[in-house]
Amino acid sequence: MKKLTGFIVVAILVFAGCQKSGLETTTIKANSMVCGSCAKTVKEAVYAVEGVKNVDVDLDKKIVEVKYVPAQTNLATLERAITDAGYDANDKKRDPGAYDKLEACCKIDK
Asked: Is residue 14 very low, low, confident or very high in pLDDT (cuts 50, 70, 90)?
């Protein structure tokens, strides 16, 4: 009985590890980010997408690296989250209304 219980525990741990490795990573170019406030806004917008597990924003390189569950979201949805927050994402243009609401420091069209 102890061997069976041990086997079940190991099987669960292995399965859980496989699930975690099922994540995909994508990098999104966000050229319109100009300051720390921009990076924070983009990070929060992407984290709000269901299935997103990790978001790293590199303001200097103007990229957003996202780890996500592919069964729950996709690149187009991640890009839309960024554009809906007022920033460009890859070749997708920012939402003008959201852009207008950004702080002055976050606007590239000054």
From this structure: low
Q: 6 exposed, middle or buried (CB, 10 Å; 0-12, 13-18, 19+)?
A: exposed
Helix (H) or strand (E) holding 37: helix 36-47
| CATH code given to domain 23-104 | 3.30.70.100
Express each pLDDT in 22-61 by its tens digit.
999 999 999 999 999 999 999 999 999 999 999 999 999 9
Spell 83-108 as b/e; 16+ CB within 10 A means b: bebbbbbbeeebbeebbeebeeebee
- Model confidence, pTM: 0.80
Q: Copy the structure tokens of residue 44.
A: 């929060």
Closest CA to 61 of 94, 102, 27, 110: 27
d(CA 106, CA 102) in angstroms, rounded, equals: 6
Q: Locate the domains of the chain by residue range.
A: 23-104
Q: Please, are residues 33 and 62 in contact by the beta-carbon 8 Å criterion?
A: yes
